[in-house]
Amino acid sequence: MGTYRSDGGVIFYGTLSCYRGVSCESENDQKVFGQHYTVAASQGHVRDLPKSSLGIDVEHDYEPKYITIRGKGDILAALRKEAKKSDKVFLATDPDREGEAISWHLATALKLDEKKMRRITFNEITKNAVKASLKAPRDIDMNLVDAQQARRVLDRMVGYRISPLLWAKVKRGLSAGRVQSVALRLVADREEEINAFIPEEYWTLDVILKIKGEKRPLTAKFYGTDQKKMTIRSEQELNEIVKKIENAEFKVSDIKTSERFRKAPLPFTTSTLQQEAAKALNFGTQKTMRIAQQLYEGVDIKGGGTVGVITYLRTDLLESQTKRTHRQENISLLFTEKSILRRGRRSRRKERKYRMHMRRSVRRISAELRLRSKNLSQEISSVCIN
User: Fold this and answer.
1) pLDDT band (50, 70, 90) for residue 6
2) What pLDDT score does 185 carry?
3) Crossing angle of helices 180-196/348-385, nearest 10°?
4) In Å, how far are 30, 32, 132, 308, 348 from 119, measured between CA atoms?
5) What CA–CA distance (Å, rounded) separates 305 from 287?
6) Which of 74, 66, 23 is nearest to 47 (CA)?
7) Where do the domains of the chain lie, and which CATH numbers do they carry?
8) Is 312 a catalytic residue?
């Protein structure tokens, strides 16, 4: 969020896409906004539902009752002081529904004048992106704010209404959630399908054919008769088919040619980035997001200043081809300056040993998770029946 002073200076303060609510006041922000700008942070949300009660008026259209988060009083007081001596305020929180809600909460808590307050968003902390956002300020999008409030109210209602039931009927300490309970049900249903699966015997038949004038043989797969596709159900059926075609001559009756185009892989989303980092680098989600946050805020490149090398990290929106090309150029500079950490190389023997250990660990953990989800599903089902 930022304020514009009558003396020509501009003060910006807001979350500026802080990771885990950490303050984003830094030299990088100052470089991006210029010497006339001062950056301060709300350090995430400033208001939330109370922990001691449901905090939702169910009788009056599910109206949420917000209170100031403990420890945010001093931050709000400092922001309020800056806002009072400024002519214009810019809210520059994250470009998603959570960021939009933070801007709305700030505007409400600071009692900002609608004529004085404007909302700006940018997907990367670079000078060009910030300048472009300042040229296109807007009002707070209440549709995004309402979406965040609906999500928050649902989380609270599911958690506070169902968790006590689990404590009383199943086990103390269990929790229910808008997402986790549904995900657990999907895992339990899938486990039941796996356990109920009845394996069926089937056989496949491949024939390796030598073609005159060709060095490479042709592999043909058994399909069936001219009328229909056949499934080989037993070894006896397989042997009968082999006897019929054992000394037969084959000919190619038709050739179909087509072109295949392989598209370039899509950029990472938040989830795919975490998955690939865990698989390739054995990084936890927190470490991955912390490094991504640093890359988003910008890296000092010799001769190029502070440059953000990735777009906003907590979103599944894909950037345009133009932005992607520009970002690839920045990443090339980053690699040229050797400002990234390099992984130590393992010997082949150690690499194989490491992979075998990881496979065993994954199998053991997967089996344990399946057993736990099955037991919990049975407990929940018995509670529902009772």
Assistant:
1) very low
2) 93
3) 100
4) 19, 18, 13, 22, 54
5) 25
6) 66
7) 2-140 (3.40.50.140), 206-245 (no CATH), 270-336 (1.10.290.10)
8) yes
**Rounded distance, CA 14 to CA 121, Å?**
11
The dihedral built from the CA positions of residue 246, 251, 254 and 256, taken in this order, carries a sign that is positive
How many CA atoms are closer than 13 Å to the CA of 53, on its beta-carbon side?
Answer: 8
CA distance 213 to 385: 71
- What sections of 170-204 are H helices per DSSP? 180-196
pTM for this entry: 0.62
Give the largest CA-CA distance in the chain: 96
Residues 6+ apart with CB under 8 A from 220: 206, 207, 209, 250
Q: Is 269 left (phi over 0), alpha (psi -120 to 50) or beta?
A: beta
Residue 319 Cα distances to 98, 151, 262, 323, angstroms: 20, 26, 20, 6
- Token pair listed for 344: 């130590």
Phi, psi of 47 (to 5 degrees): -135, 150
User: Which of 37, 296, 312, 354 is an active site residue?
Assistant: 312
